[in-house]
Design a protein that fits this description.
- Helix content is about 30%, strand content about 25%.
- By secondary structure, the protein is α/β, with parallel strands linked by helices.
- It has 2 domains: about 100 residues, Udp-n-acetylmuramoylalanyl-d-glutamate--2,6- Diaminopimelate Ligase, Chain: A, domain 1, CATH 3.40.1390.30; about 120 residues, NIF3 (NGG1p interacting factor 3)-like (Udp-n-acetylmuramoylalanyl-d-glutamate--2,6- Diaminopimelate Ligase, Chain: A, domain 1).
- The longest helix has 12 residues.
């Protein structure tokens, strides 16, 4: 098995050409022709993730968020990004990231979140122009039975394992049709309104955006929280294609956001 085999396995459902122009998905560190025997899967690449990979004898790290997002001008111990790259190189660990190409896949990040919440009849929230059935942003689906707004908020909090979620004002309406986008989905609030969704679930919503919805329950459940199931998605893709390849989800929690909940 070589690194390129693992990359091709994931890009079958999320080609690299589907990534946004600003992104840096694909091989981050290493050689696509290098042999790989064990992979560690994480949402983010940190020094702790590289340390876990070393401890578990993994020669490949697969992440959702790219470690190298912007160009590096040098490799010194001054930043965690540079230290992680240096440590990976020293220990012959390749790093691959599948970011907005996996966000934009119909079988990707938003779909797995929608399925975790129990939504049905799924379709893309903002389909791409060239491949509208397979590529685009976000997801739209419906519950078999409508629920109250507070029931929906409780479902989301439990589903993503968050102690709290931010939301717009409650309007006393029932929630059946839901639009969502794992990660930073504020640009698609208008699409959620346009498709007639009762609620829109995403992350990184700015303060003033909460004023915008007219009859739409806007819910911010956290960036890590809404994308965390990408790890299981990547693992499942690899095991379906290569059932004997050792791939495991990292135990290290890379969520940089912590919550203080006063009782």
């Amino acid at each position: 098995m070589i690194v390129k085999d693992i990359i091709n396995c994931i890009t079958e459902i999320a080609p690299l050409q589907w990534q946004e122009d600003y992104d840096n998905a694909g091989l981050q560190v290493g050689d696509v022709a290098a042999e790989t025997h064990k992979a560690l899967i994480a949402l983010d690449v940190t020094e702790a993730i590289i340390d876990e990979a070393i401890a578990k004898n993994c020669d490949l790290v697969i992440s959702h968020h790219p470690l190298i997002f912007r160009g590096l001008k040098h490799l010194t111990p001054n930043t965690f990004i540079e230290r992680a790259v240096m440590k990976a190189i020293k220990h012959d660990i390749a790093i691959v990231s599948m970011h907005t190409n996996l966000d934009n896949s119909y079988l990707g990040v938003s779909r797995i979140l929608a399925e975790r919440l129990g939504l049905r009849s799924l379709s893309l929230l903002q389909p791409s122009v060239n491949e509208p059935e397979h590529c685009g942003a976000g997801m739209v689906g419906e519950f078999e039975h409508p629920m109250t707004e507070t029931e929906f908020l409780s479902l989301v909090a439990d589903g993503v394992g968050s102690p709290c979620v931010r939301h717009s004002a409650l309007a006393g309406k029932m929630i059946r049709k839901v639009a969502l986008c794992g990660g930073s989905g504020s640009p698609f609030i208008g699409d959620a309104l346009h498709c007639g969704a009762d609620a829109y679930l995403t992350a990184d919503i700015k303060y003033h955006d909460f004023f915008a919805p007219d009859g739409l329950l806007l819910v911010d459940a956290g960036h890590f929280e809404t994308e965390q199931f990408t790890k299981e998605l990547i693992k499942d893709l690899i095991h379906k294609k290569f059932p004997n390849f050792a791939a495991e989800i990292a135990e290290t929690n890379t969520n940089a956001v912590h919550y203080f909940c006063k009782k």
